[in-house]
Amino acid sequence: MSSSLRLLLILHNHQPIGNFDGVFEQAYQDSYLPFLDVFEPYESLRIALHTSGSLMEWLDANHPEYVNRLAALVAAGRLEIIGGAYYEPILTMIPPRDRVGQITSYTKWLNQRLGADVQGMWMPERVWEQSLTSDLATAGIRYTVLDDFHFKNAGWSEDQLHGYYTTENEGKLLSVLPGSERLRYTIPFAEPHETIDYLRGIAEAQSNAIVAFGDDGEKLGTWPDTHTHVYENGWLRRFFDALVENGDWLHVTTPSEALASVAPLGKIYIPEASYREMTEWSLPAKQQERFEEVKHQYAGENLWEPVTPFVRGGFWRNFKVKYPETDEMYSRMMMVSQRLEELREAGEQSPLLDEAQTELYRGQCNCSYWHGAFGGVYLPHLRNAIYQHLIAAENLLDEYQGRGVEAEGWVELDAADYNLDGRQEIRLASNRLVALAAPARGGSLYELDVRSICHNLLATLARRPEAYHRKVLAGPTENNSDMSSIHDRVVFKQEGLDKEVVYDSYLRKSLVDHFFDLDVSLDAITTGEYREQGDFVSGQFDAKLRRSPDRMQLMMSRDGHVDGSPIRLTKGITLEKGGSELEVAYLIEGLPNDQPFHFGVEFNFAGLPAGADDRYFHQGDGQSIGQLGERLDRMDIERLHLTDEWLGIDCGLSVDRPTSIWTFPVATVSQSEGGFELVHQSVVLLPHWILQADEQGRWSVKIRLSIDTSMAEERRNESKEPLAVGSGQ
Predict the structure, then answer these.
(1) What confidence tens digit (pLDDT) does each residue in 344-399 have?
(2) Which segments of the chain have a pLDDT < 50?
(3) For 324, 350, 602, 680, which has the most beta carbons within 10 A of its beta carbon?
């Protein structure tokens, strides 16, 4: 054959910050290690590999021999190491300063550890906006890989994508390679000859063609059923054999070699995009359902393929709207990044600031900021890990300024638009706690950081509609476990999930104020099938700040209605100097005193999982009265505690009026690579009273929320090591 083709095999290996150690190890044994074992003997093949920094650090700590083998392949010229942002953030989500910082710091690590001359970078989730070009170039990157879908969005056709292009922003240049969607579906799901035949057709039609395959290395062994297919059944060896057998025209090489040998096909400016499935997942659930319906309709009429290049789904950034909890993480990350930048701009330099920067970068890892075929934001341990690193970064910044967790007690109270919604939020903070309240959103607490263990007790997630819930409600009739793409699998990891699909009408936070019917049941409360008599759950509150040297107080008030009756509800949140307890005082005024009312205050606690005997309720004596996932209906009590011995925390709720308390778990039905599953998100404590106003139409109660981490701190003292921060496993 006179024509030749360069094939670029680019693997992307990644495990997110906060994933369980066993998941890392399993992926290593199922995918990363066996791939290397099969690849090494094929000396004529040259490939490229990107390994995210979170995974690479784990590999270097747990399997340095594997990293040494990578270094040897680099030295032999058989492996090109592709760099990227250190901890795999979506670049459009973080400030330019952090984009450049993440990329350059990882390039330096890869050069020092592997001897790699890093020329290209992996674009996390291929989320692209044209302005990234200049940041990548500033960070020393010459090329990146996007999907052919990106290029087709710009109007390019399939036959124009067998090479690479140059793009530009602010006068800075970058080469962009289109990754083949066709190859993403044939590798490894089709027999090798199908890939060879496809590439042969391209080689015959175009001289000096370049075709890039860029996709997850986990699909070669870690994705469901692929280890048996790829290794035990020999797919990978057959694939490599086929590449070698066709070596007279099919040259398996590296991106840098291809770019040095072949001129670009031209210039291009690429619209914002990600891979095709991601753009669909970012749509609101209703629109995603409609998108799927139209796609199936057009496919049935043989119209989908010709219109696909002109059809786009949603915008990645709108995941922060689809999941407000994601926006809370993002906003928290931006708070830390801005604070660190202000210190840097002032010329401050310190190892503590360098450590804080690393913790910030870890808190930017993308996986828990979105959701698609993988668990993402629905996985509590990933959300908890993000907050763990962001809180750790803030602790380090405070330590640098002499205000660390172990420093002399302090307290402060501030107001700003902390969650970037155009409205002011309130921040109550001491060296032990950070509480963020949203007066415009029901006066709720939406974040509560326990600084000594770097844990946000309000890293919750509400139950909301998802497009795939239609499959759940239809039941496991479409269940399959064949070698289809992970995007097409319908697998139920447990029975009865259709009965668990419940939706919340508000975010699961704390200090959420309810007025119920007098006879409402716990069953109705847990399923949301009750009537909300008041308008306080998500209503606008007015806020006043009261400051004194040793004590800070936030007062929030709202004039609203309960079942048609106008009332005024005021709640004050007080935090003392060095304090780890919130005092919450409620005053309700204007109540008709000739009728009873049913009032409740909802608290949610995240990262304290259900189903373990060392995570339990007690009434102040330490004696378990049930695991944290149990539903309780306690009457006439003044105290209830939640203890998580693994995390080393005890959260106590006490009231100055005897109360009834309901507890129940909040669990979501969500999708992951393994199938549909029920995931525990938070524990609800809901003290509630049948109240009767006094002669002045008033009623009040005082609630104390105490946070005790002495268990964790005693373990730290015994081990004489830094406090181990947990992810609420």
Answers:
(1) 999 999 999 999 999 999 999 999 999 998 899 999 999 999 999 999 999 999 99
(2) 1, 478-479, 481, 483, 723-729
(3) 602
pLDDT of residue 405: 83
Whether 197 is catalytic is no
Predicted confidence at residue 489, as pLDDT, reads: 58
Pairing of β 597-605 and β 675-691 = antiparallel
Question: What range does the domain containing 237 cover?
Answer: 5-274
Classify residue 184 by its DSSP letter.
H
Rounded CA-CA distance 338/336 in Å is 5
Tokens representing 619 are 């009434």
- Which pLDDT belongs to residue 528? 92
216 in active site? yes
Specify the number of domains making up the chain.
Answer: 2
Name residues whose C-beta falls within 8 Å of residue 676's C-beta, 6 or more positions apart in sequence: 468, 471, 472, 490, 491, 492, 493, 497, 669, 670
Which residue in 216, 348, 421, 535 is the catalytic one? 216
Dihedral angle computed from the Cα positions of residues 206, 208, 209 and 212, in that order, rounded to the nearest 10 degrees: 170
Question: In the Cβ-directed half-sphere of 367, how many Cα atoms lie within 13 Å?
Answer: 24
**Does residue 532 fall inside a structural domain?**
yes
Which residue is catalytic, options 30, 125, 148, 325?
A: 125
> Which has the closest alpha carbon to 258: 176, 173, 152?
176
Residue 542: what pLDDT? 98
Confirm if 73 and 48 have CB atoms less than 8 A apart: no
